[in-house]
Amino acid sequence: MILQAANPAAPFLARKLYRYRWLLYELVSRDLKLRYRGSVLGFAWTLLNPLLFMAVYALVFGVYLRIGVRNFPVFLLSGIMAWGWFVSAMQSGTSSIVDGRMYVGKTVFPAELLVIVPVLSNCVNFVLSLPFLVAIVFAYHQHLGLPLILLPVIMIIQALLTVGLLFFVATLNVFFRDLQQLIQYLLMLLFFLVPIVYSANVIPQSARQFVLGDPIAVIIMAYQHIFYYNTFPNLAGLGLVFVLAIVLVITGYATFAHYREMLGEYL
Amino acid sequence: MTPRAIAAISVANVVKRFRYLGIAKQTTLKELFVKTVRGQTHSRRTIEAIAGVSFSVPAGKALGIVGRNGSGKTTLLRMLAGVYAPDEGRIAISGSLAPLLSLAAGFHPDLTGRENARIELMVLGYSPKQIQERMDQIVTFAEVGDLIDAPVRTYSSGMMMRLAFAAAISVDPDVLLLDEVLAVGDAPFAEKCLRCIDDFRARGKTIVLVTHSMEMVRERCDLVMWLDQGKIMAFGEPDMVLDAYRKAMAATKELERPAKRPALRTAIVYGNCQAEALSNILKKDELFGSLFRVVYCHNYDAPGQDRNLPASEDLSACALLFSQHGPEPFAFADRLPKECLTVRFPSVDFNLLWPFHCINPYNKPQLPELPWGPFPYGDRIILDCIEKGMAPDDILEYYLNGWAQYKVDLKHITRLDQARLEARDGHCDIEMTSWVMERFRSQRLFWTINHPTQTVLREVVQRLLNASVSVEPALLEVDIEKTQGVLFPNWEQLGMINIPIHPNVAEELRLTWYDINRPFSSCGRTYSYEQYFREMIDYCVSERAAGAPVAASA
Question: In sequence order, what are the residues at sequence separation of 6 or more whose Cβ sits closer than 8 angstroms to the Cβ of residue B357?
């Protein structure tokens, strides 16, 4: 084993992930276990969560506010489940390095894993609640078809984008703990900026370019295309988001690697 | 080619810089904004923690790194472990590596010992299957018993060290890195670790250890590096390097002492771990600290510590000596100034809590596999019952319910214990016996027969202060309660054991706080009262069966 100046390059990250695959697996499964430890329903919450979410939003936006989308629960659920993955990963990911302070800076523990774990564990949750989404789709007599093959691709793009963002945010949060609070409101704002509880058609033409250019919106709408419209999503848009995600992962990891050795001093 | 020793570690021209950040710890956005406006966020100042270091360690050798605090020892060790990457130069390590860098770091407080050990090994690259194979060995070696499945926040520092050491050693690495980790932990375990390290060396493995203990370096290292301000001052044979290091340290001490230390009088506290706790209370008190420099001087050889001798200027400036009564009186009394006041105080313990305290009757040198260690306490009734050939079940029954007929006169024993304490008080300038006897009924004053709680220690401190007023009238104003709640080093270990008190003893002493149903923990396990004695009896019986001679129990 030879140690030289730190290598912040992303291929190095990939090698590291392979090297620590068991640790990653352990941390993700522990994260999932801890989430429902001490709760009566336990794992059932994975399915209950989207159901309750759907019930609340369907009531507010489908019944009271009358968004006017046909089969609103299907539309809502196809976007909000992926949003749930994103937002939970961002929330626990932001404080992941601070929360893992016992590992950072003083031991050989690969701290980058701390950032990746919430993305993966929430991804597992997302996947496990997919059958519920499928059941709702069929319950409303809608169809699923060939666009479904793009699902893994969209998920990979979303995972990369979230990881890239988190490398920045989690690193910065070590130096400015305000971020942990701030991010809640930013995410809430983003939630309403992305067409999740309303359809993109209702956005005024003047603002449409702005809202739909949001990479998160591109991803969420891709899920809606697959599960609600049963059509292929905007591939060019997804391609751009993919490139953006890669750039974010590379620069985010470089930023994290740059500050890595300082993190311990601030925790 | 002759088979030359292969370098296990080779380090070439390694430099490590740390950059001072203009951003202070825990900056808020507001402060950041102010600093950004003023252009204070970026500082170009760097410090070279390691300034061009080259060396190599042949496989099978043990390297000790010594140096003052802040000399770069820990940074270098962390670089060897791969925590820090070098800014310049190259570090090559051949073979597998296990670092044991700092206590508690790397342990998640909410995860159990087992889960933490798993993660520790996964960090070293082991698969779940490989870890499963080693887990039993780790649990056995760490001696944490059932607590392996309890969260590590319930562990004492000694237990954490044992677990960390056990995990590191279980992977049988080619290179072991140790950072000052053997400083905590009890003597038997420290010995076990040392044996392990010796065994490691014997098998041709490489060790790097950072330590302040010269003994450790001299006895266990083939090579020594003396590091100062990130540079190697000397590297080579232990005797040569340590000699140079010691001389240099003595020289700087003489240079620095007069400037750094104002003419503060010294208060020396001499004695066992109780005395150390007392010295810690005194150190934490602001008023006392402004009047005296507190120096603790132990009367025993603590594991992992150098024999601590008071510095000569501490002796010559000594105005107060708090000296614990014991078999070994303070050895430097003749070097104290004439006007120094000596206040002798007793060590406070209570034998009756273990009513039939006796020495190990089996007198065996090896450590038995018992949670309470090498027979620290005996029990005459149990031993006598065994001699009469009673079965273990009968002994337990007899012990719990029958021993009133055994003509144990608890009143008499209580009087003996009190007399013993009073006799000790008689050798001292302050007395504690009546205070302890009065209060023990209403509150728990001891964790074990010889580990008193904070309440007792504070009372001792208060009495010591009262007895020293002639030296410094201001001592009357010291309010020891201000240091209440401050946790001291070693506090946890003092509070760790929780000995079981026989209900008859509790009744005789009329202990109002006593509850037999309360489970207690000892040496990393939780017991009920019966379980504890059950194991104790089984141990004695098996020892007897092994044919060990039983000393006559008086």
Answer: B351, B377, B378, B449
Contacts of B127 in chain A (CB under 8 A): 22
Residue in chain A closest to B112 (alpha carbons) equals A30
Q: What is the DSSP letter of B346?
A: P
Most confident of B44-53, B390-399, B432-441: B432-441
Residue with tokens 């240099």: B248
Write out the CATH class of domain B59-249: alpha beta
Give residue A28's pLDDT. 93
For residue B114, CA distances in Å to A36, B127, B137, B423 come to: 20, 15, 12, 49
Query: Residue B319, SS3?
Result: strand
Task: Check CB contact of B153 with chain A, cutoff 8 Å.
Answer: no
| Residues of chain A where predicted confidence (pLDDT) is lower than 70 | 1-10, 38
CA distances from B62 to B223, B237, B424 (A): 6, 11, 47
- What number of C-beta contacts closer than 8 Å exist between A and B? 101
DSSP run (H or E) holding A138: helix A112-139
pLDDT of residue B509: 83
pLDDT value at position B171? 85
pLDDT of residue A126: 93
Contact at CB, B83 and A1, closer than 8 angstroms: no
Question: Which residues lie below 8 Å from residue B150, measured CB to CB, with a gap of 6+?
Answer: B112, B113
| C-alpha dist (Å) from residue B202 to A128, B59, B179, B209 | 53, 12, 21, 16
| Domain boundaries along the sequence of chain A | 10-34+41-266
What's the fold here for domain B265-345+473-484?
Rossmann fold (3.40.50)
* pLDDT greater than 90 at residue B68: no
Can you tell me which residue has the tokens 């390691």? B50
The CA distance from A173 to A118, in Å, is 16
B82·A1 Cβ contact <8 A = yes
State the burial class of residue B151 (Cβ atoms within 10 Å of its Cβ: 0-12, 13-18, 19+): middle
Measured between beta carbons, the chain B residues lying within 8 angstroms of A176 are 27-29, 32
Task: Summarize the confidence of residues B148-158 as an average pLDDT.
Answer: 83
Q: Is residue B99 helix, strand or coil? A: strand
In chain B, which residues have their Cβ closer than 8 Å to the Cβ of A19?
125
Alpha carbons A241 and A237: distance in angstroms, whole number: 6
SS (H, E, C) B367-395: CCCCCCCCCCCCCHHHHHHHHCCCCHHHH
Q: Which residue has the higher pLDDT, B431 or B550?
A: B431
Condensed to tens digits (0 to 9), the pLDDT of residues A54-95 reads 888 888 887 888 777 888 889 999 999 999 999 999 999 999
Q: Do A106 and B106 touch (CB under 8 A)?
A: yes
Per-residue pLDDT at B486 exceeds 70 = no
CB contact under 8 A, B122 and A23: yes
Identify the burial level of A91 via C-beta atoms within 10 angstroms of its C-beta, where 0-12 means exposed, 13-18 middle and 19 or more buried. Answer: middle
Mutate to test the interface with A, among B16, B33, B76, B84 (most CBs of A within 10 A): B84
Residues in B touching A6 (Cβ below 8 Å):
85
- Cross-chain residue pair B85–A6, CB shorter than 8 Å: yes
Return residues 69-108 of B near A (CB < 8 Å): 78-79, 81-88, 90-94, 97, 99, 101-102, 104-108
Cα–Cα distance measured from residue A39 to residue B243, given in angstroms and rounded to the nearest whole number: 63
Of residues A19, A106, A266, nearest to B25 (C-beta) = A266
pLDDT over 70 at B143, yes or no:
yes
pLDDT-derived band at B225 (thresholds 50, 70, 90) equals: very high
- Is the pLDDT confidence value at B349 over 90? no
Q: Which residues in chain B are classed under CATH 3.40.50.12080?
A: 265-345+473-484
Residues 6+ apart with CB under 8 A from A110: A16, A20, A23, B123
Tokens standing for residue B271: 């004695």
